[in-house]
Design goal:
Elements (H helix, E strand, L loop, with lengths): L2 H22 L5 H6 L6 H12 L2 H14 L3 H25 L7 H6 L2 H35 L6 H16 L4 H30 L3 H10 L16 H17 L2 H7 L5 H35 L3 E2 L8 E4 L6 E4 L4 H8 L2 H35 L9 H25 L2 H12 L2 H13 L9 H23 L7 H23 L1
Length: about 500
């Protein structure tokens, strides 16, 4: 697939995004940027949030993981449903009742100034690392298949990526993102559908044949009942529920879109239908993963015999030599090298769409949180220029972090940094749990220290368990982290009571 062809498609794609931005961002003020004027149709938000909840990492990792884990990921998806019920019935009513622009304003009204700043700061750190990580992966793909063959350096590829996001999001903010997310979700799903259709035609399978082949394969195993395994049903289900509550319900990035709905009723409707839609969407991704393996093995181009650090072997179409690849490389490798230019182009756009749907909203949420939570912005015209500056500064921060990832040249370190960012959600879980389900009033000035100690202690505990007992807490670290925070908050409240 020629790099020029990919480049032309990407140019057309971003021209479309910028046109949407011009229409939605017209006469955009802070109210438009932060809340979308509370005018977003719930069904549009729901559809767009499907793409936002599936990042570029998920886009390529879920299909590849089928070889080792089967369809067990669906256990976590079922947990998502319960998590979204909590968001719909508890968090959304709270946010709408308090008329919040930044959801961390809840912490100020419940606990105080330092709790408020701690929650917002932990979000900023987490989203900067997370968004940079996802954009790094996209820039890496663009560099490998488009810009590097043209002699364009990696830093310039990253800069172009950031500039494009800034161009279509700096004015309309969340109002623009709601509409561009819809477009990006469409392209992401189309890329999966195109790949499925291609495999069906190549193997001469109809829809019924594909369903039968997948069902008869060991790749479709869904429920795991061996408790010693990390993907046991209860572990996966509970993890899915709490990950959803924290990474959607307590995350400014995701909740800012929900808060653009006209009222609480429509926001609830949006969350309900979006959560239900995630079930068939994730099932589609998993089905694609099974089909990729079935297609590859039948064509004699994929082998599941692992060698060294690589669990899969792929036949290089140019050299005819078997090469080891990671599981998350399966979809891009087959789409670009074996499925023809049409599928390759749609896959590339789908990957960009999946990553940008999370990255552009992250940049908007970072700007919103910093402006509202730290600079005290209100809906006034006089602060629009200052908001542009904040938006630009965060763009450069993302640019710098991505280049830092590139300089490490060590994928394990980058993945570790990404996982560390996840520890920032634990203290948020603990703070909101204590705030919503108790009358405890902790010592506010200690909350920043409690949050840091809880995150560090959780990381240290997991490190000890892995090193000495060969037991990894995995997703459960979120609950441990939140529990540490809640316990320390309660203890601090006891001291406060005694002093009073």
């Amino acid at each position: 697939m020629a790099p020029v062809s990919i480049l032309l498609v990407l140019i057309g794609y971003f021209v479309l995004l910028i046109i949407i931005a011009q229409v939605t961002g017209r006469k955009g003020d802070n109210t438009t940027f932060f809340t979308g004027n509370k005018s977003s149709p719930w069904y549009l938000v729901a559809f767009g949030m499907i793409g936002a909840s599936l990042s570029g990492v998920t886009f390529i990792s879920i299909p590849g993981a089928v070889a080792g884990d089967g369809f067990s990921y669906m256990q976590m998806v079922l947990g998502y449903l319960l998590g979204y019920v909590v968001i719909s019935q508890i968090l959304i009513p709270t946010y709408y009742r308090m008329q919040l622009t930044s959801i961390y304003g809840y912490l100020e009204k419940r606990f105080g100034f330092w709790s408020y700043k701690t929650g917002a700061a932990f979000f900023l750190v987490s989203r900067i690392i997370g968004a940079s990580f996802r954009l790094y992966l996209v820039a890496f793909v663009l560099d490998a298949f488009v810009f590097a063959p043209m002699g364009v350096p990696f830093w310039l590829t990253v800069l172009l990526t950031i500039v494009l996001i800034w161009l279509y999001s700096f004015k309309g903010g969340i109002k623009t993102i709601v509409w561009t997310d819809t477009l990006q979700t469409t392209f992401m799903l189309l890329s999966v559908v195109f790949a499925v259709i291609f495999i069906g035609r190549e193997l001469e399978w109809g829809l019924g044949d594909m369903i039968q082949k997948i069902s008869a394969s060991e790749l479709s195993q869904t429920f795991v009942w061996d408790f010693s395994k990390g993907n046991h049903f209860i572990k996966h289900f509970a993890s899915g529920m709490f990950i959803t509550i924290v990474m959607t319900g307590l995350d400014q990035d995701m909740m800012q879109k929900n808060l653009t709905c006209k009222n609480e009723k429509e926001a609830k409707k949006n969350v309900t239908w979006m959560s239900l839609a995630l079930v068939p969407v994730n099932l589609l991704f998993l089905s694609l993963g099974a089909l990729l393996y079935l297609y590859g093995t039948q064509k004699g181009i994929v082998s599941l015999e692992s060698t060294g650090d690589f669990p899969i072997q792929l036949l290089n179409p140019e050299t005819g030599i078997w090469e080891g690849i990671r599981k998350d490389q399966l979809f891009p490798s087959l789409a670009i090298s074996y499925m023809g230019p049409a599928v390759g182009l749609v896959f590339t756009v789908g990957l960009i769409a999946a990553a940008y749907s999370s990255a552009d909203s992250a940049l908007t949420a970072l700007t919103t949180s910093f402006c509202v939570d730290f600079l005290g912005f209100k809906d006034s015209e006089g602060q629009v220029r200052d908001r542009y500056i904040v938006h630009l500064v965060f763009s450069f921060i993302l640019f710098g972090v991505i280049l830092f990832f590139r300089s490490l040249h060590d994928e394990s370190i980058i993945n570790t940094l990404f996982k560390v960012a996840g520890y920032t959600y634990g203290p948020l879980l603990g703070m909101y749990a204590v705030g919503l389900f108790s009358r405890v009033k902790p010592m506010d000035f200690l909350v920043p220290f409690i949050a840091v100690v809880s995150a560090v202690s959780s990381y240290a505990l997991n490190f000890i368990l892995v090193e000495f007992f060969h037991f990894n807490l995995g997703f459960l670290i979120l609950l441990v982290n939140g529990a540490f925070t809640a316990i320390l908050l309660i203890i601090s409240s006891l001291f406060k009571t005694e002093r009073a």
